[in-house]
Amino acid sequence: MVLELHVWGPAFGLPSIDPESLAATALITQTLPRNQYQLIQSSPSAVPTRTYLLPPSIPTELEATDISPDQLPTLYNPTTKTHHSGYSSIMSHFTSLYPPPKPPSRSAAATTTAYTAFLTSHAAPLLALSLYVSSANWSSTVRPAYSKILPFPLGWTEPPAIRTAMSRRAEHLGMSSLDTDAMEEKEEAEREAAAAQGWMSAPKGIGKGRGVGGAMVPEQRARIRLEGLAKEVLDVLGEVDWKGEGVEAGVRCLVWAYLALMVVPEVPRGWLVETVRGKYTRLGEFVDWGREEWFGTGVEGLPWRERMAEETVVSVGGRFVNGLMGDIPGFGEPWRRWWARRKLKVTGRVDALQEGSGELWQMAGMGVALMVGALLWRKLPQLGQPLQIWQKPLPGFLGLGAAGFVLTTFADQWR
Amino acid sequence: MQKREEGPWKAHLNINIAGCSSDCAFESQGHRGRKLSAALRLSTEFTAKMASTPANWQWPVPRPLQQLFDYFPLVTYGTAELPARAQATTSDSVPTLFVFASEDDARLGAPSFNPGCLKWQTFLRLAGVAFRVLPSTNHASPTGALPFLLPVRPTTTPIPAGKLHTYALKHGTSPPSEPTTLRLEAYHSLLDLPIRNAWLHALYLDPAHTDLLEVFYTSPASSSPWIRDALRRQLRRAAEAEILKTGSYLSAAAAGTAVVDQEQVYTAAREALESLAALLAESETGWFFGEQAPTLFDAGVFAFTYLMVKYMDGNGEGDLGGMVKGAGDGELERHRKGVLDAAGWGEEV
């Protein structure tokens, strides 16, 4: 039996760019010998439960099994023919496959559940601030990493969508000022609105950028607040000895994964790295220890499966087109909902809440009507005369028509 | 600086002169001088005109209009009194807590059906603050979210949920203590994430509880079936988005394909309730973290367990009440009853 683990691809010298995928990889390397599992580089749009724009052709071995929506990481067990999506269900599936010699105590299990929830609700937004919201870090480090792990055209559609989702995740922290692209757009829009209302606006650069504040990047300006946010999370994590005996392997891997993604990537605005390394040295050491212990052989040493097998032009193209459809303003949202529900129906998990498809057809109908209208409009002859004549303006007074003619005559006489 | 500012001006003049000279190339020197001075005079006149623009703008108002406007304002009203209803709803003697509740429940001071409101309602009762309850909606709240508290009348500044804790500690007769352990944060995220998600899913997305959603939120809002329908869709979509925003749905949400996985939501909730029960089993006092009296954390847990047991007991897959009762050795059920007693509600509600 060879388990298949579908994960986000490697980045920053770590086996995965996504914390849950990273944690799952760490867990599987500790639990299983190298020849009993395979790692498959993927992205959520390519998880094998998907059917593309082609007619739904579900592989026969997947029939009548529990298929979850596309999430990464996903573990496929060929013996039981089941998919397990999300870190929690992978963790529990592992525990059922390879029960630890001594079942965890009740309080250890409770700690695992609590800290898993804590990481998802608190550490994930913090990580999102550092890697995704901050424009500088995103454009110089994270986006190139995504481009490297996604096959060719997908690098255009998927990373921006991920960034949007991640920023939404960190919205409640109120640090959107780190996203300088968005801030500039906002300022531009404000300036235009003011101009439209008749206000004179000072030229760019006046009144701003003076003094110490102007010379600092947003991360420096918000440094104290950012450190406060990091402290809220890291204080709680620093409380526990993660290398210790009383900690279950599952939650240890997850904590390590989040901390590793905070510390390891070399980002230009490294406030989070500096905070962890400077004030929480024990957590920093834990990251180094885990990296050495679990991935000492390097990322390439892991049993990756050749990626070309599934990635035909058609499938990648389908994912790309789907991504594009999801980005059409006004239409994308219903499209995504419809697509997701359709997939559930295909996989035999009919949701009781069916609202998506009617709306999508409405939108599609309106779109088609608009396009047909536009085409007809362009085909119609112009209003007024069917024949339009354009005359070259005449020199001198002749351009003024009849009066010009009279004037020209006068002028000739004057001469 | 001054010198440099002169630059463009000079250049402009030069161009003028040059332009002029090319136009009047055949004219004499004197002629050109006159023309130039005329151009300069024109420009000074222009600036003078610019400066005096506001004065010129005022046209005389036509006489009939002026006569008409002489009649205004006809009457200046004094400041209006608060409506009689407002006098009745707020009170001189007790502060008022605005929560989601039905009229009858509010009159009796019964628990609210919204977990966020119930948490604070319970906490204020535990802290020994005397207050009364009024049903309200998010639109009434200054922060956009219930609950909020209106203090006794001379103070008119409402207190939002975020500041209720300090208020209760200051004005309560038996202010609860606050556990200092950092583990609290970790366990608190169980309430924020898996348990809240399960509640949202059961109430909003699970068709088994549509009637509950109707009674709680849509029918008090409007009597029109159209509006109720639209409101229900809106609520459902918001709840779905809220669940998808969290956890490992994130990457799938980015790919635009995320659908709430019911089984996953309920499994996570069951684990979370087990975990809370285990935490409770460690404590000897029956309250979380070994406190002598129920704290804010107890109120938060109670807000969910109480509502789950009351409204969602024995309903197929979304049997959250059953999960609460079955968690651990029934610690959460005992805890629920304990908080009911401590908050002075007793068994009847």
Described by the principal axes of the CA atoms, the overall outline of chain B is: globular
Report the sheet-strand fraction of chain B. under 5%
Biggest β-sheet: strands ordered side by side in the sheet of chain B:
2-1-3-4
Low-confidence stretches of chain B: 1-54
Stretches of chain A where pLDDT falls below 50 for ≥5 residues? 49-69, 347-354
What is the typical, i.e. mean, pLDDT of chain A? 78
Shape of chain A: elongated
Output the radius of gyration of chain A. Answer: 30 Å
Largest sheet composition of chain B: 4 strands, mixed
Number of strands of chain B: 4
Q: What is the chain-wise order of helices and strands of chain A?
A: EHEEEHHHHHHHHHHHHHHH
- Helicity of chain B, as a percent range: 55-70%
Domain Thioredoxin-like fold (chain B): 115-208
InterPro entries (chain B): Mito_Protein_Transport_Metaxin (IPR050931), Thioredoxin-like_fold (IPR012336)
Protein name (chain B): Thioredoxin-like fold domain-containing protein
Pfam families (chain B): GST_N_4
Can you describe what's shown?
Chain A: InterPro entries: Mito_Protein_Transport_Metaxin, Sam37/metaxin_N. Chain A: Residues 65-163 form the Mitochondrial outer membrane transport complex Sam37/metaxin N-terminal domain. Chain A: Keywords: Membrane, Mitochondrion, Mitochondrion outer membrane, Protein transport, Transport. The complex is a heterodimer of chains A (415) and B (349). Chain A is mostly helical and 415 residues long. Chain A has helices at residues 19-31, 87-97, 106-133, 135-149, 154-169, 180-196, 211-215, 218-221, 223-238, 249-263, 271-279, 281-294, 313-327, 332-346, 356-379, 402-414; strands at 3-8, 37-42, 74-77, 82-85. Chain A has 16 helices and 4 strands. Chain A has a 4-stranded mixed sheet, with helices on one face. In chain A, strand 1 (3-8), helix 1 (19-31) and strand 2 (37-42) form a beta-alpha-beta unit. Residues 49-69 and 347-354 of chain A have low confidence and may be disordered. Helix content of chain B is 59%, strand content 4%. The radius of gyration of chain B is 35 Å and the shape is globular. Chain B contains 16 helices and 4 strands. Chain B is mainly alpha-helical and 349 residues long. The termini of chain B are far apart. Chain B folds into 2 domains: 87-171, 3-Layer(aba) Sandwich (Glutaredoxin); 183-342. At the A-B interface, helix 2, helix 3, helix 5, helix 9 and helix 13 of A face helix 9, helix 12 and helix 13 of B.
